[in-house]
């Protein structure tokens, strides 16, 4: 079964680094890097800009992965796909607080660059709106030396699914994808292949 994996960067980052995952993941996992649109006034307009293109890609079991602020974007889009009755196979995030705790890490969800004042404002404007928990399983990844998003905060993602939940702490800081992206990709691939196997048994 072909799985489409949509990958979202931190605010102000780019999806291009996820292209390296194509070489390290099995061919049945279609890795699709997504750039966050620039110039959006707020998170709602950013999501609205992404909504139709993401829905168009959800023509097969779809996994949404996001790093840091991209994890919150992935969560919000998973909710939108669920509302459209489109297949969300799994939500995965790294170094991202759960939506209800996002306010506790304000200012830390943006890629490190001096040009990103607008992204800081946008990311800090994220506000959680309580909604029913997702039905899909969650894969959560954190850095063992991340002082921005702690293990207990990552564990609180479990409140946002009625499906299975797995938290892995890996070597690295908040910049986990640069420091240990190979480990994240391989661990996520294992979860996706396990899902595919269970679906056929």
Account of the protein in words:
The chain is α/β, with parallel strands linked by helices. The chain has a single domain (3-199), classed as 3-Layer(aba) Sandwich (Rossmann fold), CATH 3.40.50.1820. 35% of the residues lie in helices and 18% in strands. The protein has 6 helices and 6 strands; from the N terminus they run E-H-E-H-E-H-E-H-E-H-E-H. It has helices spanning 21-24, 43-57, 69-83, 117-124, 151-155, 176-199, and strands at 3-8, 29-33, 62-67, 88-94, 138-143, 165-170. A 6-stranded parallel beta sheet has the order 2-1-3-4-5-6, with helices on both faces. Helix 2 (43-57) crosses helix 3 (69-83). It is globular, with a radius of gyration of 15 Å. The model has no long low-confidence stretch (mean pLDDT 89).
Please outline what is shown here.
The protein has helices at residues 21-24, 43-57, 69-83, 117-124, 151-155, 176-199, and strands at 3-8, 29-33, 62-67, 88-94, 138-143, 165-170. By secondary structure, it is α/β, with parallel strands linked by helices.
Secondary structure: elements and pairs:
Elements: E1 3-8, H1 21-24, E2 29-33, H2 43-57, E3 62-67, H3 69-83, E4 88-94, H4 117-124, E5 138-143, H5 151-155, E6 165-170, H6 176-199
Parallel strand pairs: 1-2, 1-3, 3-4, 4-5, 5-6
Strand arrangement in the largest pleated sheet: 2-1-3-4-5-6
Number of helices: 6
Count the beta strands.
6
Oligomer: single chain
Low-confidence stretches: none
Per CATH, the superfamily is Alpha/Beta hydrolase fold, catalytic domain
Helix content: 25-40%
User: What summary fits the major beta sheet?
Assistant: 6 strands, parallel
Which structural class best describes the helix and strand composition? Answer: alpha/beta
CATH architecture designation: 3-Layer(aba) Sandwich
Radius of gyration: 15 Å
Remind me, CATH topology?
Rossmann fold
Instruction: Identify the overall geometry.
Output: globular
Number of domains: 1
> N- to C-terminal separation?
13 Å
The CATH class, by name, is Alpha Beta
Mean pLDDT across residues: 89
- H and E string: EHEHEHEHEHEH
| Strand-residue proportion | 15-25%
């Amino acid at each position: 079964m072909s799985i489409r994996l949509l990958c979202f960067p931190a605010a102000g980052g780019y999806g291009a680094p996820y292209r390296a995952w194509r070489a390290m993941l099995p061919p049945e996992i279609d890795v699709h890097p997504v750039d966050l649109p620039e110039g959006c006034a707020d998170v709602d307009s950013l999501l609205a800009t992404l909504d139709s293109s993401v829905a168009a890609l959800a023509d097969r079991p779809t996994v949404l992965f996001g790093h840091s602020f991209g994890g919150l974007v992935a969560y919000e889009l998973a909710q939108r796909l669920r509302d459209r009755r489109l297949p969300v196979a799994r939500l995965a995030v790294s170094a991202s607080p759960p939506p209800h705790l996002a306010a506790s890490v304000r200012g830390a969800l943006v890629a490190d660059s001096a040009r990103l004042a607008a992204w800081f404002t946008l990311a800090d404007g994220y506000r959680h709106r309580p909604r029913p928990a997702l039905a899909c399983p969650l894969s959560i990844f954190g850095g063992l030396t991340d002082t921005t998003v702690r293990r207990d905060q990552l564990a609180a993602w479990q409140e946002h699914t009625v499906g299975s939940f797995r938290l892995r702490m890996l070597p690295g800081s908040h910049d986990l994808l640069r420091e240990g992206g190979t480990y994240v990709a391989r661990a996520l691939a294992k979860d996706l292949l396990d899902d595919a196997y269970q679906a056929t048994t």
